[in-house]
Queue: 4 jobs
Job 1
Amino acid sequence: MDIKRNYYEDIELFKSNTILVWSILFLIFLAFLPWLITTYRPLGLSIYIVNLITIHAIVAIGLNILVGYTGQISMGHAGFFALGAFTAVILIVRWSFPLWIALPIAGFVSSAFGFILGLPALRLKGPYLAIATLGFGMTITTIIKHMEFFGGRMGLQAPKLYLFGTPMKDIHYYYVIMIIAVLMTIGAVKLIKTRVGRAFIAIRDSDIAAEAMGVNLTYYKTLAFAVSAFYTGVAGGLYAFILGFINPESFHLIMSITFLAMVVVGGLGSIMGSIAGAALMTFLDIKLQAIQDIPAIGPALVIFSEKYMSIAGISNVAVIVYGLIMILIVLFEPLGIFGFWIRNKRYWKTWPF
Amino acid sequence: MLKKNLTFIGVLMVMVFLIAAPATAQKVRGVTDTEILVGQWGPQTGPAAPWGAVARGTDLLFKIINEEGGIHGRKFKYYLRDDSYQPAKTKAIAKEFVEQIGVFAVVGGIGVATGMTARDYLMENKVPWYAPITGVYEWISPIQKYLFAQYPLYDDEAFNLTGYLHEKLGYKKIAMFYQNDDYGKQGAQGVERYLLRKKISLVAKVSAEMTDRDLSTHALKLKNSGAEAVIMWTMPTHAALILAESAKIGFKPQWATSNTLSDSALMMQITKGLWAGMINSFALELPDSNLPLMVKYREWHKKLAPQERWGTFYYAGIAFAEPFVEGVRRAGRDLTADNWVKAMETLKDWKGISSPITFTNPMDRQGGKHVFYGKVKPDGNIERLTDWIRITK
Amino acid sequence: MFGQLIVSGLAVGACYALLAIAMVIIYKSSEVLNFAQGEMAMVSTFVAFMLLDAYHVPFPWAAALTFLFAILLGIFFEIVFLRQAKDPTVIGLIIITLGFEMVLMGFAGWKWGPDQRSFPFPISNIEAYNFYGLIISKINFWTILITLVLMFILFLFFRYTKLGIAMRATQQNQLAARVMGIRTKWILSFTWAISSIVGAVAGMLIAALGILDPPMMMDPLLKGFASAVLGGMTSLPGTAVGGAMLGIIENLFGGYVSLAFKSAVAFIIIILMLCIKPSGLLAKHYVKKV
């Protein structure tokens, strides 16, 4: 059943009816998710956190196209994220663009910068590329910080958006973000399956071999950067609006690292993995601090801190746990959450053998 | 293999359920017959963690008040959340406070970028917010009904400090060293505003980035400007670095700085004594003050939180929550957000352990308008130079 | 002013170079970009601080104990975390080191609290030597000297000791080294130990130059990383030159062009440099075989 008879079958979005049915069910689930959250508050989630997760998922998908599929490392995606956020806000504040035009423009502005960053990447590999992209991210925020056009170091207030005359709330943003995210996910899945995606994967596996086979390295490597930056830019634009206020200082290196962690934890070279990774890492990042409120563990931590550590730094336990989770997932599931999923699927498929 | 996976899932599920908190609902949000729920965010981890002491200081104040029997039969329940100084987290915390915990009010909260993400949301939901711990204009303009600011405005503070250096001490060549963010920039703005009025120009204006750890070039620039006095608007780390670098190259001007750096015990320690001679403005009473309130708080501190250092940031947490508590006391048993706002607007020259607080003009939400100046003695104690001086009109 | 800028640039560059060398030692033997380097150094420095401040251990003993701790920390990380990774990807390894960085950062914040401290280093960071008008602070002078001495020791070590030669052999070809009877796993741990010591020296110097607090290594680490790349990532002398250059360029740019972009200029130069000579300043150009 896994045999493809022709090209069109291979690039089909839904391989079988089962997947189609599950996808539709999942979309219906997404449509009712806000209602579920406001009524039952599972896991202490709020719509805002789901929005944040979705935005991070878009970034993770974009980054995965670059890191997981094309094999280029980037430690500067916070720069693209910032570019998208500032472009969208400035377009709307200064020239009163509507959101649906401002967002793609934000995406294209980042993608133009992605293209520029892709040029040195043609010659760089591994640590060299890591430092170049890292430097790029830091340079972007430094420039934004020093230009009054971008609000300088003070930052910019994102304008309130209106939907049919009423100010948009989290729930409205939820549907806007979700629709964009679903479209972009489908776009990414399609992209990977077509000629372009194959070229990316060929470059990842061996760029010299790919070039020998006739893949235009210059074109595809810069394209990978541009596409990845586009995703991140659009996500950045959305981020500015759910946050309501953006400041260059918040797009720092740690953000780039978190994005990278999402991709690796989710699974390199897997779109679904990126989404899962974004969800897990964002959730942990926001909720882990509640570790001290857990009955029994919390008081024990306090006593331990008083005796051996410092009580002022007790919140750092959350940081330690976050770091450990990152390490353990990479150690025991090199393919991330996606690998975990595959392993289980295989296990249950052949059960009880 | 299966066993490993099941344990993994099991651990994950247990963690998730433990983390998840149940939701509650009340009539007036955050006020029950016996309790008032109050929240605050503050960085407990990450690079901004030293300021997190403020949020823990507020915890001490609420503990003291609860020990003394609460207010009108209600005790405070205080939620402290760590935002690591990341705006996205701050907003998540604000939503948690309002939608899940249902707090009556938010007190304190450090940072402009972080607080600005939550400001409009809190105001739309009519959550009283008392005293963000930064002295910038964002909190008082435009006027928000439920937002009261206490921290002295950096701009006015710098303006008056420059005036003091120029008029009282006679310095003509003044340089500015500041960190490149809203705190430093509004300070620089105040200094320049004063000098412009006196038609003097700043001899040097040097800024540092938050992440910079090498300030040798900055010190050289200041030295080459020939400044007699340097006003600095930075965080403790940069203050220590610039003093050390200046001392290395033999540059010894009169330094002056904002109340953010008024923790002279800490500063003396990290500058190895170079802090002596600093002219400092203060927005809070001195840590060893004999004011009855301070004595009381110090005693409670020994009893309830002896492991915390009695530093300025720590008791600032008390100072910036006291007027909020006074508002709750004046609002009486029938506590609602609007009653609290009305009660706050009756505060006139109210004195806790910070400067006198006034909110009687409903068109002015800047409560703290006074600082005093002091000079750091070689033993780290403060020689008080002036009484409370009004800096904001 | 020019001389002054060069001198302080060299002192800062020396610290960058030490961190970069620590990084390169590891990179050469295990192809890991160690983002935890800075935090490992920071925790070691805090241990030294604790010994000096709380237990009043004399400085030479405290330094020795700190180096011992640094060795254990390096070996611990290698054995407990990195060695467990089954055929890891480059990015996976980076994530492991980043995770370890967070663990260490959290640990330091938890154990010692977030407050800034001054590091009781025997050399004052305030007094200065005056060479005919050129003021060289004692700490800068000694930083440069210590770095040079340490580099010389490392050079001798890698050149003439059995262990050093074994390490170089392992770096060149692990399989061949094992065939020759070198216990490569043991050598790998040892690499981490040495790197950790070099890092600890850098940490103590940086703390002595400024102040000691958990985030103190963030900026120097990135600069160290940049110096390593500038120097070519595979050559120790190149790395040292890269660090010194970076410190000087930064200071000159800050002094004469723009202070605001001082931190960013390092990265811009590096991006441009890498475009022209991707393998760094002093490394031999190396072509990957398909």
Job 2
Amino acid sequence: MTIKNSPIVQSNHVIEIRPSGQKNSTKIKDRIFQTVVLIWFSLFALVIIYPIIWLGLSGLKSNSDFFLNTWKLPEEWIWSNYQAAWDAGIGQFFFNSVFVTLVSVLVVLVLGSMAAYGLSRFQFKGQNLLLVLILSGLMLAPQVSLIPLYKLLQGLGLYNTYWAMILPYVAFQLPFSIFLMRSYFLSIPRELEESAIIDGCNSWKVYRHIIVPMGKPIITSCALLTGMNVWNEFMFALVFVEDSSLRTIPVGLMNLRSQLNTNFGIQLAGLAISALPMIIAYILFQKQFVRGLTAGSVKG
Amino acid sequence: MKRKAGFILAVMLMMSLLVAGCSSSSSTKEEESGKVVLKFLHKWPQPEFAPYFEDVVKEFEKENPDIKIKMEAVADEPMKDKLRVILGGNEIPDVMFSWSGEFARKFVRAGAALDLTPYLNEDTAWKENFIPASLQPFVSDGKNYGIPLRFNGKFFVYNKKIFDKYNLQAPKTWDEFLQVLDTLKKGGETPIILGNQDPWPAIHYLTGLNQKLVPQDVRMKDYNPKTGEFTDPGYVKAMEMLADLNKKGYFMKNVNSSSHDMASQLFFAGKGAIFYLELEEFAEAEKNMKGNWGFFPMPAITDGKGNQNYITGAPDGFIVSSKTKHPKEAIKFLKFLTSKENALKLVKEIGWPSPIEGATNPDTALKEVAEGVDYMKKAEGMAEWLDTDVNAKVADVYLSNIQLLLDGSKTPEQVIKQVQKVAKQIQSEAD
Amino acid sequence: MIKTFQNRRTAVLYIVPALLFILLFVFLPIILNLYNSLFRWNSFDAERTFVGLEYYGRLFKDPVFFTALKNNSLYAIASLVFQVGAGLIIAAILEDKLIRKFQPFFRTVFFLPSVISIAVVGLVWQLLYNPEVGLVNGVLKAIGQEEWARSWLGDSDVAIYAVVAVSQWQYTGYMVMLFLIAMQKIPNEYYEAAMIDGASKIKTFFHVTVPQIKEMILVGSVITVIGAFKVFDEVYVMTSGGPGRSTEVLGTMLYRSAFRNDEMGYASTIGTIVFVITLTLSLIQMKLGKSGQEV
């Protein structure tokens, strides 16, 4: 596998090699190309950023301000909207989302890395079958499971608990994580493990002390991907819990909409609050996120 | 052997997860320190209304220290799904919200709702407290299954300033109504505000139109899932009249993409002349328009085959789960909720019309709300909400097609044909 | 190979916990779903009536099913064109040496919407599409194209396009990121060689970039196409299938049947069909993947 130093990880400019005769005309062409592309991309970026900023600003408006001056800056910056949204339930939903996401991510990482280790290092009969079985979980649509799981969770006495969300989340997130981690683990050189085993380590120790530390980049990427999906999941959270004290943010927001039907400012403040953590997490961790994926997923 | 220890650890982790899951679920059922825990589900999480329920529950718990109420609230639109999701579960609330009519009867047929008749007969004082017309819609096969909390009616509210500008009076007949609309339209006003993004507001028009155009006995037969056919020409006529209002440009533009709440804001801001509102929303209207409004019931349709002295509206209230372990406590709580004292508080604090005899009067309530309740008491009957008074699947055909009717992509005949087809299918399944 | 790694029992022990989760919560429900689809039942009634394959017959006569199928396919096509097609082009341009210094900024911005919950995105766009106060019509008015203004989510002719457009807004940046990651593994020498040959940008794109990352393109196409048949949240949040049934997709149709119309059996039937569709698509993908390797 050849991995070029990528500009995502560190900037690395290509040395320009160009026949000198065409230089001038190419330069003009390049200029035009650059300008056109920059205009296009800037417009696209504006289309993306504007609604997000609008959301944050509208959360500061009073109702009539929102209706009459929808696209202007707030007349009066009502920061208390954010407080009100938090108190109206976002606070509780936020805690629930954090808890459900953390536990799900943790279980996915532990079980996923173990399975990926088992599938990438061991040689045994039926290995391919197991691999196909796990990876085919990638393709299945969650709504197929919606009704059976609803009944199953009731049967297990887990309905309307945090676990009614966590267990299905783990199951649906595992295949992709195993897929990513397995291909990364395959790329970890084996010499270290071999010498460790000669020194008397068992397979568990190899996993704990070699695979997990060396696999950190992909484990981080998986944590972010899983976290993102779990944080934003909607359908299972809608059906598998009923107490408002257990609701996660996406479903809580829908309820908040019908609950605060007459105050758009607070509603939008609530939306802004729930979007923020993922935006911050992404901006903070994007380097690690990209590094893990660059090195792992698809072999070059 | 250390390797095995690791696996045992992992397995134990999983087990502990499952066990923790189980224990946390049973803890909600747990009756802490010998207290009876009642789960109570209502429909008003809005900050305007929720405090009333919190107060009443607190008061009840103070009077009954051995009962604890675990309150939960889901708003109107999600309630329709949520109630079904919950009733399929194993943690059914003891006391829960329900609309009257077929919506409640379906739960009755499935044996999910407790028969409340003995409790009402046992305490005649409680029973006689209710305006009779408010208990009736919760009756199925002669038995009471629900206790009303509100007695809701639907009326056309108008902007007085705009009406005065064109010298208009509240219309008594549909023809007068059309004339009023025409004058408004010609004057450049938006005659009617309607927010039909969630399609129930237009269904409320149809509720009244169906009732006024179809003979009572035929309509009752059709609304019963076992005998429904919907072949009376009145159903098509009702849809045509609704579609006409739109075709003639009496409704505001883009009815399908504004929500009812957004439409309310527009009306309160004076952007339209007429708005079809429920009694429970009158307080909000007064708050925003400060006396600059009046109301009238849906005008009579001269050649309509239905009874013209009906009012559109229905009570909504609570049913008790048939699986409740504490029926006595649940009834006690319902009696508390519907006591005269709390009914007065309900009328005063949140301005809702109460089904308790004498609770909604000009002293306690807004003048208009009291008048509205009078209309309902004097009426010969109620046209209950079409979307909760017929089988869910018929309601679904109505609800989803009413938007298509209003954006012109379907004709009344096409919609009714589909209603008939679904009604037939339901009949075959009921056998 | 070392002996430690040939112990089958140990290997299985590592895999079993994850496998159990997947079997119990992903595979078992598929079988239960098939069984459930043979009965008429609802969530709150203990009674079940065996109806055999009746629901399957009804489904194939239900016009809403075909609307949903059409909408899901529209989702798939639009996602292929915008997320895979446009995403690929955008990624290639971002990798161009003239643009590369702006790459970190654009890459971050483009990816941003995909980290936001669909519930939030849906609720925001519902307001942006609002004909009275929404930005979309406001912009059209500002650039003098008022006749294009629509009641976007309230008009059954355009609502589904409006909903699909939001998904493209949200996820194109995600695919751009995946393609960038794949492109950065292409050895520099290939580009240098192309440059010395005097190949144009477009030629380089088709002869170097695309063949080098074709595996990622395939994976991306599969993710988006299968994803198009898993759609639920955005439709539920923005239109819940309306106006009429014009934006219904299989996911919302299933939910509506189960929890609004009290037909759990019918909902399970839809579930089974979704399973068959995604399974077929996966099999096609595997076949394509194999032939791709052979080439």
Job 3
Amino acid sequence: MSSETKQILTTDGIPLEVSLKKAEKKNKIKAFLLVAPLLFFLIITYVFPIGDMLFRSVDDKMVTQMLPKTFKAMENWDGQELPDEEVFAAFHEDFIKLVEDKREGKLSTQLNYTKNGFKSIIKKLRRASKKFEEGNYKEQIMSVHKRWADVEYWRAIQRRAPEFTSQKYLKGMDMYVNEEGKIVSVEEDRRIHRVLWLRTLEIAFFVTVFCFLMAYPIAHLLATLPMKYSNLLMICVLLPFWTSLLVRTASWMILLQQQGIVNDFFVGIGLVADDNRPEMMYNKTGSYVAMTQILLPFMVLPLYSVMKTISPSLMRAGKSLGGTPFVAFWKVYFPLTIPGIGAGCLLVFILAIGYYITPALVGGASGTLISNQIAFHMKSTLDWSFASAMGLMLLSGVLVIYWLYNKLVGIDNIKLG
Amino acid sequence: MALPKYTEPHYRIWHYIYLTICGAVFFFLIAPLFVIFPLSFNAEEFLSFSDGMKRLDPDAFSLRWYKDMIYGTKNPWGLAAKNSFIIAIFATIGSVILGTVAALGLSSRHMPYKGLIMAVLISPMIVPLIISGVAIFFFMAKAGLAATHTGIVLAHIILGTPFVVITVTATLSGFDHSVTRAAASLGSDPVNTFMKITLPLILPGVISGGLFAFVTSFDEVVVVLFLAGLENTTIPIQMWTGLREQLSPTILAVATCLIILSTLILVTAELLRRRSERLRGINR
């Protein structure tokens, strides 16, 4: 507004601009207040706990708190030769306190994670420490076991001084910090986690491809058939979509078992011998088949909603301009369905990468995914910090895809049913 | 989809191949569900069709496993069903209220940071369930709500709200806001306007969101596995345990009941969707 023009005033004499801004602000607050209850509920019960996972996955305070004086004394130690008496005395003091609280067992477990061989020498030290005399702890501790005189073990203790560690993340990628403080991979035959990550990606990728190949023709059929037929066929897509995941997995378990219907059928048509029935469950095949069928509706629905909007006259125009049906399809129809393909593939991939229930039931040992490993550490080994670290590594992968999805499709364009 | 008369033979063949592929895919989608149905009436303990069943001998069929499901000794299904329904109903109510109110705010054109907030609200649907399970477990354990119904209901509200938010915002996108202004100009207060004008119009979206939330809760097993104690067992947990230990025909009887339930939900959802499209004046 230029200064010469008179300011427009409302009836109360307030400049219109100010008044409008005020109203706008009021509306903004109103809208935000409506969203606030759910937003805060989710932030407290969901977003913060995920942050808590992040904290747990790097948290390494346990040893720091168990040996406070030792680490203080170690601050001036260069780690080249054995530490001097001051460190040994501090360690002795910390250790006596731990023995009094009966917590030295925990210390030995924790230190054993860093370097093997701590368990026995801590046990020995506990027994010997009762007869220790005052002064010259260095000599006394070193005489308990020769490992206490080994500088490697003291370096291992020093490595546990920081309150935070990336160790769990490294473990998730089958790597660790070796004695020299370098990050190295574990031996070839012990790389279980890398195998799992690769398998998860592989299964998610192929399930997505299979779903796409199967969903495209039927989505096209549903979109081009007259309403009264397509509604009927739509039920074939929607009924599995609404049916319990466990029910669908159960039906695959019945179908795929060795004495199951699929195998009976193969024997019946003479494809395989009766005494040589293939194992189709408790391996990758089981995961592939069951996950493809279960995730198929998530591919069909976005494809269908995009294809529904494509006018059939476009294909006719393509053909009338001299294209064969294949050329018309490839040059006209297919490019128009790409948004649907993107939406469906990303959705199926995101869902497949985090699958847990179906692989656990039909996947066996060779068909389980990273989620199964996370559940295993949550429920069996109780290594929650490791489970958190693996979970967050998976989550960061999913968030990248989610971001991509948002860029390509837009979150508000998700359609259900 | 009849082909025009002038179609050349080799396109004709292609067309039939295409229809066959479609038929096979539809079969792959739906057939597994129908395997469960006859097998749940099996008189024997096996999970494959007995010779009697193949001959359609009436003696080969029985309601034995349904009786076992209802009257069986030490049967967990009664408690599980009760828990499942209680949890799902409360979770649905919670999700619908929180989700609808949030959707109203989100569809306002004055809403600041719409994209960011939407992303947060939808995230429980996108984040893999196992991660949600771990995170929610940590929260509930700290809050002392692990192994309680309240804890599970809250967890299912988290998982269910994204569906309500999505369906209700979709319904509101075709909503004519002049009707609420008309109500306001006639002297109605906002709450009254919402109850009398907005809600009836968006009700189909709200209900179908509620159905999604209900099914999500009723079918949810990953998070419950972390949270539930013995007292809070639900149908999915019992099925999960049953499927891991041994596949008994009783599970198939339960599965059949669940398929019938999902058919009912599907029909309701479909009817609502059509009604909603009629109300919003979308002609297809």
Job 4
Amino acid sequence: MNINATFFAELIAFCMFVFITYRYIWPSMASVLEERRKEIDEGLQAASESKRQLEEAKEESSRVIDAAKSEASTLVNQAGSRADQLIDEAKDQATEEAKKIKETAESDIAQSTNKAKETLKEELSVLVVAGASKILNKEIDESANKEIVDQLIKEL
Amino acid sequence: MAKEAANNLVETSDYIGHHLVNLTFGWCEKTSSWGFAHHQQDLSKSLDSACEVSEMGFWAFHMDTIFMSVFLGVLVFGFFGLINRSAKKGTPGKLQNFVEFVHEFIGSAVSSGYHGTSKIVAPLAFASCLWILSWNLMDLLPVEMANFFGQAGSGINYFKILPTADLNAPLALAAVVMVLVTYFSINTHGLGGFLKELFIVPLGPLEFISFVSKHVALALRLYGNLFAGEMIFILIAIMFGQFFMSFSQTLWFLPGLIMNLAWALFHILIVALQAYIFMMLTIAYLNLASTKH
């Protein structure tokens, strides 16, 4: 057996290294690992949270898209019916307008016909008087015969 | 022929003897002075003692054991301390990964084996496991290396690089464990309870013997395994040595090579296993001491 004072030297050295480990190495390593563990935990939680949020956002967006689609289709429908309505209205208006124009034209025609008739009557009366005076070859008292002529004209 | 064989035998036993002697610095009774054992070093005449190693008493230091163990300790714990100092909270580098793996490994061994609250157990397990491992790894260096450098001019003729093969070192570790086990036991059971458990319950003084012997066994197990491993490396090295001594022994070279390789591979297991066993037993003893039963 070879036991000697080396034992004490080793004893002291071992106590020293255990103390160094206890004081400086072990706790700092543990804290680094603990912090990393916490960080990873937080990261994982954040990831699952954002996953959940993504899911929600997806749902929300599909909901919005559906709403927009249905709105669009109603709008299209509305627009279609509105267009039909507008066309109908325009047709009605046009028909009415045409009717009005036609009426105006008819009344105009009637008026000018009447006017022409009047003018013709007057001209005819003059012509009749002139013709009669020529036929009679004599001066006819215009005022005396006017009554007759007017009578004639009226009867025309 | 017979003479040559006898010479070989003397050389062989000399060789083994040479490899089993520590570089010893101690108190020499004859001259009443401190010094290195006779002819162990050529560095300084004034430090050369008249005493042989065997003539030195208890007050002697194995300088190689102390130097190697402290050197390896500074290396290992310095490495861990340095990596720790630059440890980042974010993505760890490769070295930090390794350090953290070791930490986790020992931490899980401690948390599964020790159920008390003491904060010293994990650092103790860490320090003992890594220190012993670093010692044991020295066994994988070629047995001739230390002497080779010694003969190459350092002036040191005896140098054992394996601290585990010096019983003082494992015994010191086991002594620290024993002191802690005693402290834990007294903490848990009180001084009276502890003494009662040691000397009275259930088998009387046998309990005390078992208490001491389990700690001595803790040291001897480690020492024995590594000493035996070292011894076998030395024997294999002798086989190699035959190759250089006489041409007729050339045949020993190949088996020597194969055996050395095989034993080194197997020894890697022992090297790590013994460090692990020491750590686990330390944890188990401390756990036992800190639980009421």
